[in-house]
Amino acid sequence: MTGYGRGSATGDDFSVSVDLKTVNNRFLDVHLRLGGDLSPLEGQIKRRISSRLSRGRVDVTITFERTSQIAYELNRPLITGYVNALREMQQEFGIAGDLDINVLARLPGALQAARDGLSESMIAGIERALDEGLAELERMRAQEGETLRKEMRERVDNIEALVPVIEAAASGLVETYRERLQKRIGELFNRESQLVEVDPARMAQEVAYLADRSDVSEEMVRLRSHLIQFREALDSPSETGKMLDFLLQELNREANTTLSKSTELSIKEAALGIKAEVEKLREQVQNVE
Question: What pTM value is reported for the model?
Fold first, then answer.
């Protein structure tokens, strides 16, 4: 689910701010933007995030500043190479003059802030800021999740409303097949001007065979069961994203089987309606943890 959270913390010699943004993704995908000082904490930060979130792309930006007096150190290899190159230029081209300290000081990378280790108080402050941002992010995602749950329940209701339509149409299939078969036989014999008496037992056998091939009662029983489980998963406080994914696959399977079994237009239309709702639910379930 999408969301945003921000946290901050300060200490005697540091300040830190954390920004977190999440967008939909089937798996947890954490992207960190850290300063050089925080590179050793990358694994620790990812583990802390994964303990709170299980799905979504998470973009994390952590801004860390030291507020105490900063010591600088010389980048000696860089300066040495620069000075040697200038002296070589003087000798080769006969250029007079002295090296200017101001030029050397402005050389990119010549002076670098000394990288002191992170103290325990700094690490604790970073963790506080991260937890604060995660808490705000989770509150926002929870609000979105409640809206999502309501919409998904409505789509489940839409699917459930189509089940009686299929069952009602399926209950009249035997008589429909009988009439269709009698009409077809009559058309064939009338075309050749023949009068043939149809054996009722043979007719009943053919009708029973067609009705058995197109029986969708088992599919409807399983479909109702999956809908009950889907509602229970929606109300579960635990992580249910993978369970919902599985149930949608099963719902889609029952709809496909119903389509393949029946030639009745009303049943096919209802089964297609179920598949359409399942596809919409599938898009929404990608956001659910």
Answer: 0.57
